[in-house]
Structure formats: C-alpha cells, structure tokens
C-alpha cells in the first residue's frame, strides 16, 4: 500500500500557490471524507477508537486520516474524553473556523448576503430590499457588490472556500440551472419566469472566482433542519413567506423528485376551476388562500383594519406586508392571529395527506412565518392532529424553523459538497479549494 496522505499548507494560508503534491487515491479521500463527516456529528469531540469502530477502519488508517484532517485545519484537538478504564482518550472535533463560506439568500422582495464559518455561524451579513420579483441582472449585480464587500472587509478571517446561493424557484440541482415552476411551464404567467434559465451560478463563480452551488430555497431550508443534531431522518419543511413551498427530507437526504418539482404544493388546485386567480395563470391554487400574499390581501380589508389598531397603523404608514402579519400574531394582535389560525387550518388539510403518506418525524414551519413564533406551530399541530390518526401524529413534532435557516442550509449545501469525497479528491492536493480552476468550471454541481 502506498503512503496515502498529502501534507497541506497550514490553515489560514491566503495565497493559493499550488503546492505540488501527489493526489491521494480515491479510496483514501473517501475515508477522509467519512472521518470528517463523522466528526461533524459530535461537536463535543470524538475519539480515535470511536472513529475506528464507526468507520470500520484500522487504528493506523484512522491516525493517517486524522493527521491529514488536522493539517487541513478541518479537525482540531478537543481535549480528553471520559476514561473507560485506562487513560482518558484524546478527542477530536470538526473545526468550523478552518475557512469561511459566502452565502446568498434571494427571497421574494429581499435578499441577504452573509459570510459564515464552516458550520453556518454568521460572521457578518447584509440585507437589502430586492428579490426574485426584481430583474435578475440587477439583483445579481447588487448581490456581487455585497458579497465582495463582505469578503473584503474581513481580511482577518480565514480564506473563503465557496459560495452557496438559494432562491425561491425550482432549480435543477445537477447543474444549478434555474427552472420555471411546473405551472409556468404549462403556459401560465409567472413573476419568476424572468429568472428561468438565468445563469446565476456561472455569474457568481466567474465574478468571485469561487466554486458556487445553487438550490431551491425550500431544499436548503430542509437541509438546515435535517442537519440539526438529533434531527429525524424524515421531515417536511414548509416555507410560508410571500409564497408557499415545501422541502422534503427522506432518510437524511433532500428529496428532489423526477423533475425537481417535489414539494410544489403552492399550485395544487383546491377549488376546481373557480377561486381566485393565481400568479401561475390558473385559478383556485392553494397559494391564493394560503400564503403571505393572501394574508396581505386579507389584512387590508376594511373589516380587518377596523378591528386591528396594529394593522391600521401600518396601513397608514406605508402598507402592510406579510412580515407585519407574522410579527403581529407573535405580538398577540387578534386579527393577525386569526389570519394565521386560518392559514394553519388550511395547511393542515394538505399536511394531513402528506404526513399520513410519508410519516415524517418532524414538520418544520419556516420562511417569513418564523417570525410568528410558537403560536403558529401550536395552531398547525392542533389542526393536524384533529385530521390524522394517532399512529401518524404520535411521533410527529411540529416546530418553528429559525429565521436564518436559509443561510445555514445554503452554507451546509456548500460544505457538504466541498467535503465530499468527489470534490475533495479534486482539491486535496492543492491544500484547499482556493484557486482550483476545475472547481470553477465544473458544469455539474452534484458530482
Ligand atoms: Zn398557481
């Protein structure tokens, strides 16, 4: 067996001067990737013996992979563990400070750029009022300005290894191309159509000189939920913002479906051909009665305004947005609470079918509605339990997501790819992914 390991420049190396090193075999990179992935699950640290047992690797192999991971800065010593008789074992943990990631979350009317560590902890961020309802060229130009500024204003931080972007529209994950919602493809008009086919991934990669991964916002939200310590292997993530969407995690993996359209619940026609006109060009879609957009319409009716001094004040000071309704419910405004209770009931109809079919361990409610707080998860949980058998609901937890789930999930998407065996095999001999041309020009983002 040939010596498998490569030495690498110390972490924090800002230059990307390639160090001529032999590329280790794919089998060795696979073991390294598995070892790092295993350590990521134990923030308190993991011992050599545990790694050896879990990965079914000999102690020598574990030692060599550990040495490489430490040289890369990706693992660091975590003190001593609990003794089981002899000397307390040395522990190792994933080091999220080895590099930084740039994250871009494009929402409906706003976007956020942020700089995170490898675990998704936000080191700096900036948000601005512009999203998928605006022109893609302009949004991307501003996004690049913000991402570049974030990187430039932190020379003290370790180098940036990659970029994760998410957007509330379907994405073909194989190459990161943006595709129209299923309904728009069948002839309806959609306000996200101008983004269809827009080369977001290559624009970002060329301008920033970094590898970029792009996915549908619902998928990165679902990924963020799935990677929480102790999260169930099967879960649903409902995003309720201006629009409605759902991400699905099955056996710990994001489920995308045959045409990247899984979880596209917004445009299920609920009322035959009647009902309100939808942005997809049809009538009576679920989103016309269950979405932030539908709540905004309901919040400006004379009846709602009369009964809520909270909404009346907002209406006078420049218009009501769904975020106001979410916040109003958290603050106990009765009209906002009623709007969300009605939304919870409508959502429970769809969730009853999905949870009965799929039997997830968790339903997470996030997107803009995260601001509504526990009130909303309680309402959805109660409505759902009324509609399904105890067998479906007894192990089902309904919880609120976090406001930063999109950023955390987009970061996770990038680190999962960068630290996968296939991608590590490309950059390992360079010591870091920085400046590795093959990562910038690679068309496939799922390989
Ligand atoms: Zn529709």
From TrEMBL:
<dbReference type="GO" id="GO:0016301">
    <property type="term" value="F:kinase activity"/>
</dbReference>
<protein>
    <submittedName>
        <fullName>Transcriptional regulator/sugar kinase</fullName>
    </submittedName>
</protein>
<dbReference type="Pfam" id="PF00480">
    <property type="entry name" value="ROK"/>
</dbReference>
<dbReference type="InterPro" id="IPR043129">
    <property type="entry name" value="ATPase_NBD"/>
</dbReference>
<dbReference type="InterPro" id="IPR000600">
    <property type="entry name" value="ROK"/>
</dbReference>
<comment type="similarity">
    <text>Belongs to the ROK (NagC/XylR) family.</text>
</comment>
<keyword id="KW-0808">Transferase</keyword>
<feature type="region of interest" description="Disordered">
    <location>
        <begin position="1"/>
        <end position="22"/>
    </location>
</feature>
<keyword id="KW-0418">Kinase</keyword>
């Amino acid at each position: 067996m040939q010596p498998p390991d490569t030495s690498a420049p110390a972490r924090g190396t800002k230059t990307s001067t390639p160090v001529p090193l032999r590329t280790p075999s794919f089998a060795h990179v696979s073991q390294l990737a598995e070892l790092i992935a295993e350590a990521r699950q134990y923030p308190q640290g993991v011992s050599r013996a545990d790694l050896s047992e879990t990965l079914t690797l000999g102690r020598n192999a574990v030692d060599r992979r550990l040495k490489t991971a430490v040289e890369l800065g990706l693992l660091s010593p975590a003190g001593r563990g609990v003794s089981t008789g002899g000397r307390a074992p040395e522990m190792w943990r994933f080091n999220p400070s080895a590099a930084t990631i740039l994250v871009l979350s494009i929402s409906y009317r706003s976007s956020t750029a942020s700089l995170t560590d490898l675990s998704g902890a936000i080191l700096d961020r900036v948000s601005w009022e512009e999203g998928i309802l605006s022109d893609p060229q302009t949004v991307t130009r501003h996004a690049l300005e913000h991402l570049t500024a974030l990187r430039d204003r932190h020379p003290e931080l370790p180098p940036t290894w990659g970029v994760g972007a998410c957007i509330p529209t379907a994405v073909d994950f194989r190459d990161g191309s943006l595709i129209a919602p299923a309904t728009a493809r069948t002839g309806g008009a959609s306000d996200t159509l101008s983004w269809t086919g827009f080369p977001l991934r290559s624009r970002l990669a060329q301008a920033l000189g970094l590898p970029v991964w792009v996915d549908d916002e619902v998928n990165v939200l679902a990924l963020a939920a799935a990677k929480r310590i102790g999260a169930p292997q099967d879960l649903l993530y409902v995003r309720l913002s201006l629009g409605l969407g759902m991400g699905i995690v099955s056996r710990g993996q994001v489920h995308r479906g045959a045409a990247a359209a899984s979880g596209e619940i917004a445009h299920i026609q609920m009322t035959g051909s009647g009902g309100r006109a939808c942005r997809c060009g049809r009538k009576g879609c679920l989103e016309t009665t269950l979405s932030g957009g539908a709540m905004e319409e309901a919040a400006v009716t004379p009846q709602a305004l009369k009964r809520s001094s909270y909404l009346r004040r907002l209406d006078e000071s420049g218009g009501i947005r769904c975020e106001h309704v979410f916040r109003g419910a958290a603050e106990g405004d009765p009209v906002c609470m009623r709007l969300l209770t009605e939304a919870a009931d409508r959502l429970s109809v769809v969730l009853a079918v999905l949870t009965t079919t799929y039997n997830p361990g968790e339903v997470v409610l996030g997107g803009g509605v995260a601001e509504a707080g526990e009130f909303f998860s309680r309402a959805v949980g109660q409505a759902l339990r009324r509609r399904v058998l105890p067998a479906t609901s007894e192990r089902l937890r309904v919880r609120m997501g976090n406001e930063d789930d999109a950023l955390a999930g987009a970061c996770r998407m990038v680190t999962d790819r960068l630290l996968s065996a296939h991608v590590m095999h490309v950059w390992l001999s360079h010591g870091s992914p920085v400046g590795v041309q093959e990562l910038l020009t690679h068309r496939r983002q799922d390989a």
